[in-house]
Amino acid sequence: MKTIEMPLIFERSRPGRVAYSLPDSDHSCEYEAELANLLPSEYLRDEEPELPEVSELQLIRHYTALSTRNHGVDSGFYPLGSCTMKYNPKLNEDVARLPGFAYIHPYQPEEQVQGALQVMYDLAQSLAEITGMDAVTLQPAAGAQGEWAGLMMIRAFHEAKGETARTKVIVPDSAHGTNPASATVAGFDPVTVRTDERGLVDLEHLRELAGEDTAALMLTNPNTLGLFEKDIVEMAAIIHEAGGKLYYDGANSNAILGITRPGDMGFDVVHLNLHKTFTGPHGGGGPGSGPVGVKEDLIPFLPKPVLVKKEDMLTWDYERPQSIGRVKPYHGNFGINLRAYTYIRTMGAQGLKRVSEDAVLNANYLMRQLQPYFDLPYDTVCMHEFVLSGKRQKKAGVSTLDMAKRLLDFGYHPPTIYFPTNVEECMMIEPTETEAKETLDAFAEVMIQIAKEAVEEPETVKQAPHHTAVRRLDEALAARKPVLKYDRG
Ligand SMILES: *Cc1c(COP(=O)(O)O)cnc(C)c1O
Questions:
Q1: Three-class DSSP labels, 90-106
Q2: Which of 142, 94, 178 minimizes the C-alpha distance to 332?
Q3: CB 363 within 8 A of CB 386
Q4: What gap in Å lies between CA 8 and CA 2, rounded to an integer?
Q5: Whose CA is nearest to atom 4 of ligand 1?
Q6: What is the CB < 6 Å shell around ligand 1?
Q7: By CB neighbour count within 10 A (0-12 exposed, 13-18 middle, 19+ buried), where does 105 fall?
Q8: Tens of pLDDT along 296-336?
Q9: In percent, how much of the chain has pLDDT > 90?
Q10: I want to staple 430 with a disulfide (CB 3.0 to 4.6 A). Which of 23, 159, 317, 385 is the partner?
Q11: pLDDT tens digits for 338-350?
Q12: 393, 367, 394, 397: which is closest to 382 by C-alpha?
């Protein structure tokens, strides 16, 4: 139903108002006629487009008002589990805007862009060191694309050995949804390995599944429940003995920097999300960066071209007959890679280790603050994130979704909810290392208040949010019947 106010508030256009002033066009009429000839007449409009006519001040106020409706890590706490919404240092932005980086073109001759190539070379080496891998490609533009590229390399590796019957990729039931999806897109059949009562991969089940048809095991460690897979060395042995490869989903590496390395755990391939762990801004849909590291025996299959050093010059090597090919135009999202490079150089080895120590400390501190008020399915030391269950509140008729919506009233971004799917009424909380103790305390206080409200005044939570620009949106309707165009009607 349309209210009377809505169009009045939204519609600000009045004929004749302008937000710009431009000099008169100096193009001749002939030129315009010529231009019109370039397009077939059926594509030309008969009438002037109906564009909003507003003053510069109205325009500025409109966009400024819209910008305050966004929640970002610069505006408030953002404990969205598995997404690592840490602070993005502004120094990164200064470096990314240096003209020598910002104004180069990927088709410039190599000798003109040696500095930029050196950054890519050094970043790849740093990431190889951090993960314990032998070589890294910076091409993939996201975590999911990194997964796919990594699996394509594993596939090429098996095929090169003539082992074409390796069609299965084993994925735990707690895995991020992109894992089985990437396996499928890479032409494999994903099979699920169970999580046991410890919240870890069920080793017996893994033994049953591993065999001659195993191409790889994809694993996140710490897993999406925030728990470290302690049996990883044994799991690696099981998979390697079966002839498979180990794939590490390192999208959130916030618990392991400088402490342990996937390469040392036995993994053969790893992707990182530079837009999560390494402070690339994200949350608005990109751009991302998902570099992939591989062990020695997979190097021939890396996406091409590969950056190599030849007599003090960095150059792109296209002569890679076993390469899976190019996976992204140009050379990856250079701007995001540059920010990650700046971050790594700013932090240094000791600083990165401190990142993980503080991320784990913050998560454990918050977990213990909240534990008395919610169900804690795995009561053990967590890594960079932890999982609570809203089962207790659900009994009072208040769902995890309701509580997430209620958090909005207090200016917090809710945690990830209903994922991983193997925990009922799940809330996955990742505070990250960049939050102060006071922020964690204030958030805990609000969570505790909501837990009390769930019992004492459930309607307050069920009707939430009360103070946001929009209330609960009909997500299904928005997806099925999107209204993409403003109709002045
Ligand atoms: C975010 C995430 C991904 C996917 O990364 P994208 O960059 O969004 O494609 C994969 N695995 C895990 C565990 C993640 O948290």
A1: HHHHHHHCCHHHHCCCC
A2: 142
A3: yes
A4: 11
A5: 143
A6: 82, 142-144, 176, 178, 220, 224, 249, 251-252, 273, 288, 290
A7: exposed
A8: 999 999 999 999 999 999 999 999 999 999 999 999 999 99
A9: 83
A10: 385
A11: 999 999 999 999 9
A12: 367
Which residues have CB under 8 Å from 365's CB, separation 6+?
437, 440
The CATH fold assigned to 90-346 is: Aspartate Aminotransferase; domain 2 (3.40.640)
Tell me if 285 sits within 8 A of 146, measured CB to CB.
no
Q: In this model, does residue 8 exceed pLDDT 70?
A: no
Distance 143 CA to ligand 1 centre (A): 5
Query: How many angstroms separate the CA atoms of 341 and 291, rounded?
Result: 12
pLDDT of residue 486: 78
Alpha-carbon span 233 to 267, nearest angstrom: 9
Report CA-CA distances (Å) from 162 to 93, 183, 214, 414.
47, 20, 14, 49
| Atom of ligand 1 lying closest to residue 82 CA | 15
**Would you say the C-alpha torsion 297, 261, 120, 182 has a positive or negative sign?**
positive
Mean pLDDT of the chain: 93
Give CA–CA dist 169/371, Å, rounded. 36
Report the b/e string of 58-92 with b at 16+ CB within 10 A: bbeeeeeeeeeeebebeeebbbbbbbbbbebbeeb
DSSP characters for 270-297? EEE-TTTTT----SSS------EEE-GG
Span 85-144, pLDDT tens digits: 999 999 999 999 999 999 999 999 999 999 999 999 999 999 999 999 999 999 999 999
Q: Which atom of ligand 1 is nearest to the CA of 145?
A: 9
What confidence score (pLDDT) does residue 422 get? Answer: 87
Angular region, 101: left φ>0, alpha ψ -120 to 50, beta rest: alpha
- 154's enclosing H/E stretch is helix 143-160
Q: Which of 249, 272, 275 to mutate to test the pocket of ligand 1 (most atoms within 8 A of CB)?
A: 249
Structural domain spans, the chain: 90-346, 355-479
For residue 6, pLDDT beyond 50: no
What pLDDT does residue 80 have? 97
The answer to whether 270 touches 293, Cβ cutoff 8 Å, is yes
CATH topology of domain 355-479: Aspartate Aminotransferase, domain 1 (3.90.1150)
Burial class (CB in 10 A: 0-12, 13-18, 19+), 51: exposed
> Which stretch of DSSP H or E encloses residue 160?
helix 143-160
Distance from residue 53's CA to the centre of ligand 1 (Å): 42
Query: How far apart (Å, rounded) are the C-alpha atoms in residues 70 and 57?
Result: 21
Kindly report, residue by residue over 339-387, the tens digit of the pLDDT: 999 999 999 999 999 999 999 999 999 999 999 999 999 999 999 999 9
